[in-house]
Design brief:
Layout (H helix, E strand, L loop, with lengths): L6 E6 L10 H14 L3 E7 L2 H4 L11 E5 L9 H6 L2 E5 L5 H11 L3 E6 L2 H9 L16 E4 L5 H9 L4 E3 L18 E6 L7 H14 L5 E4 L13 E4 L7 H6 L1 E6 L3 H6 L5 H8 L4 E3 L16 E2 L3 H8 L4 H11 L5 H19 L8
Parallel strand pairs: 1-2, 1-4, 2-3, 4-5, 5-6, 6-7, 8-9, 8-11, 9-10, 11-12, 12-13
Length: 363
């Protein structure tokens, strides 16, 4: 890294609202620490009503947050994009293909795509769904930053001709997710937006155990769950839980559940931001299985892996506080937002070096 601070522009799904998405907390943790490394950040967010009505971060102190109404509204920010040292476009940005073309045509510095949904994105590309990314614009990004690691990175380079695909896992801000000394309200919790492909696992690993153990207390927090779900009486529902309440939620749980989307399980090496956040709070995590999870947490020592309702019921009868403490220790040595910010800095510097000698000193 050179002594000169980097000017970074990010066009992401949302920074201002965590409602119904995991992008906001991911960006908040990463960019806060990137700014702490001395860099200057502008975050451009599409002004959409469903986030505008649910904003829980209006004025971040680590970056400039601005909104644009449509593609034409990006013209106001053309100069900022053109002269930034690096510009990142995130997954699920509305009209993301057109936004990506605009960035690639305008930016003089490094351009990157940050995919916080990599397996979902690749599945969409395979079926010709180019909602926010298309095959023809991937080679135009200097680096493809991926939520998923493992073999997927080489697939992106070979199949879609990305100049460089690099893993940039989600992370956690330990200051925002500390263990709290609060009473245990629930035996098993789950925090996540409804997803049809996750629901069968939630049924098997939380709802069925709740039916079989009416003496225990369960909770599911997150929006968009259908009204016709038959929740047992001992399962509490919380429609939306802002990030400011996440640490207390996890700390009030004896165990928490991690449920992974089908595309992420198929790809492996796809840890959700919730996994790191829960572990940072030292709550024992019960998770479904997928390839690569043992490279992040040691099964049986730092995380509990399960396939069945019987497994969950057995875990709930145990004392696993030591597993929670071990998981927090692992997170604090490699999965903090500060660790990811350092990785991002390296990736952008490498991309600048590869793109042009004139860009070699941007970081």
């Amino acid at each position: 890294m050179s002594e000169r601070p980097m000017r970074l522009v990010v066009l992401g799904l949302s920074l201002s609202s965590s409602w119904g998405n995991g992008h906001a907390t991911t960006f908040r943790a990463l960019l806060k620490q990137f700014a702490a490394r001395g860099h200057d950040i502008l975050f451009l967010e599409r002004d959409v009503p469903w986030y505008a009505s649910q904003r829980d971060l209006a004025d971040p102190d680590y970056c400039q947050l601005a909104f644009y109404k449509d593609l034409a509204g990006l013209e106001k920010w053309r100069t900022d994009i053109a002269y930034a040292d690096a510009v990142i476009v995130g997954s699920y940005v509305p009209e993301g293909v057109a936004v990506g073309r605009f960035v690639q045509e305008t930016a003089r510095g490094v351009t990157a795509f940050y995919d916080i949904d990599t397996p979902v994105t690749l599945a969409k590309l395979e079926r010709g769904d180019f909602e926010y990314l298309s095959p023809e614009i991937i080679p135009g990004y200097d680096v493809y930053l991926s939520f998923t690691g493992g073999p997927t990175l080489r697939h992106i380079e070979r199949r879609y001709q990305s100049p460089a695909a690099r893993a940039l896992y989600c992370s956690v801000d330990p200051e925002a997710y500390p263990p709290l000394d609060v009473p245990k309200t629930w035996d098993l919790s789950y925090l996540g937006t409804y997803s049809p492909d996750r629901q069968p696992t939630l049924e098997r690993l939380l709802i069925e155990p709740a039916r079989r153990r009416p003496d225990l207390r369960f909770v599911v927090a997150g929006p968009q769950y259908p009204a016709d779900i038959d929740w047992p009486v001992n399962v509490e529902r919380i429609e939306h839980l802002p990030p400011s309440e996440h640490a207390e939620f996890y700390s009030a749980s004896r165990f928490t559940l991690n449920v992974t989307r089908a595309d992420m399980i198929a790809a492996g090496w796809s840890p959700s931001v919730r996994l790191f956040e829960a572990a940072a709070c030292a709550v024992p995590v019960i998770s479904d299985r997928w390839e690569g999870i043992d490279s992040l947490f040691a099964p049986g020592a730092e995380i509990l892996l399960t396939d069945t309702s019987d497994d969950v019921i057995r875990f709930l009868a145990s004392d696993a506080e030591g597993i929670g403490r071990a998981a927090r220790a692992r997170v604090m040595h490699g999965h903090r937002a500060a660790d990811r910010a350092a990785e991002l800095e390296i990736y952008l510097r490498e991309a600048a070096d590869a793109a042009s000698p004139q860009l070699a000193n941007v970081s």
